[in-house]
Design goal:
Shape: globular
CATH class of the largest domain: Alpha Beta
Helix content: 25-40%
CATH superfamily of the largest domain: P-loop containing nucleotide triphosphate hydrolases
Radius of gyration: 24 Å
Number of strands: 20
Largest sheet: 6 strands, mixed
CATH architecture of the largest domain: 3-Layer(aba) Sandwich
Strand order of the largest sheet: 6-7-8-3-9-10
Distance between the termini: 24 Å
Number of domains: 4
Length: 520
Amino acid sequence: MTSATAHDNRTLLMELRGIDKAFAGVKVLADVNLALHPGRVLALAGENGAGKSTLMKILSGVYRADGGSIILRGEKVRFTTPRQAMDAGIAIIHQELNLIPTLSAGENIFLGREPRTRLGTVDWPRLYRESSKLLERLQQRLDPRTPVSQLSIGQQQMVEIARALSLDAEIIVMDEPTDSLTDIETDILAQVIATLRDAGKSLVLITHRLAEIFRMCDDVAVLRDGRLVHQGPASESNEEHLIRQMVGRELADRYPYESPSPGDTLIAVDDLVAPGVEGVSFHARAGEVLGFGGLMGAGRTEMARAICGDVAVGSGRVRLRGREVRFASPGQALRAGLVYVPEDRKQAGLLLDHSVAENMSLTALPAFCGPLGIIRHGQERAAIQQYIDAFRIKLSDPDQSTETLSGGNQQKVSLAKALMCQPDIVILDEPTRGVDVGAKREIYLLINQLKREGKCVLLISSEMPELLGLSDRIMVLANGRITGEFTRADATQEKIMTAAAHVEAPTETLVDNTKETQAR
């Protein structure tokens, strides 16, 4: 990525020197130095818990560093509030959305900075007019008067980005901005980032998607265990080099696929109709990973929620082990041996203000109860520690609040919570969203373990290599319907995308890249 800006790209805009930070006695950052330049996009990479988000929160005034200094435009600064950092020209888009669901998109974009009339009241026409302009820059065709609660996760992410753009900041930090975006929305964001860079802005992009680093960024810095282990031009690196820097070891097999030993059919869905779902049918067997592909809004999550009783089913049948069921709640599904791990861990997967231990054992408490309903705490704690060790969850103590964990470690807790009740059927909705390459592989190995144990895994994923690399069969949805079904041997990225777009493609354009994907 080259810059067309007339600015001197090597002029130092901000420098972080010797930054230290600890939480509850656990060192999160140690002597970190980082340089930001105008007209440059810096990728900040690292495993979950490496300290990336913490460093950016110090830069933007959310946290105060325990040691070190921040130099902005040649002068030492110390931010004690996010507002101070904002006034200094720093904007941050957090990984976990910070929108108010009951307010409109426009109100969220200008929250706390609403334009005023001469009488001091909110200038609503101007607020919505300016919001529309910002959303149009992101190619979003949505009414800024729409409540955020009615928007998709991807649209909400675009509202967050529009809010940052409204600040006209000199330094813009984007923490996993593409996690919830479709490929088309990611392309739009890449164009916006290029425009901002060419206007002389300094951008920091935190992402686990390594391909985005080489597509969108000029420079890359890598944190490992709270220390800066690499910073340099992205053009002088590659994915393998970055992975070695991030995890301190080689990851030879990114997608460790194991051949299935399928057993009996555990779940069969016939002509399911529900909100966003229009007559979906499929079956899946014990010891099988059935993947579900499709574009955002295709109906995959809606299908999963209907199956587990989170939304009402209009018509159709769901059978578990040959017996027809219709769940009124996810709790009923759980008792029947089916668990759904939702995509949005913050809103639907976890109780963030509760401890890690409380979250993890929540679904399995009956298994830890004695005859009189008394919880066997020793047995419960042993099971919790077993999952903490197996998932390599980084924390100081099982009683640590879940909201203090990194996004990827929260995702691991969400998975552990679902699996502790020993379900037979596991629906994983974007299980590696916001998870680093090392943790992703741990989740992939876990999926293989579930296969070996004879579990049935329904894998919803928007990452094509992940879908191709792990699935035994793949179903593709578009507009709430199944538009394609492929065996592992037949599946290619082109075929899946053609089915996802629900258009016919010439046969000669379909190239079988399955072996290439598996090799990666």
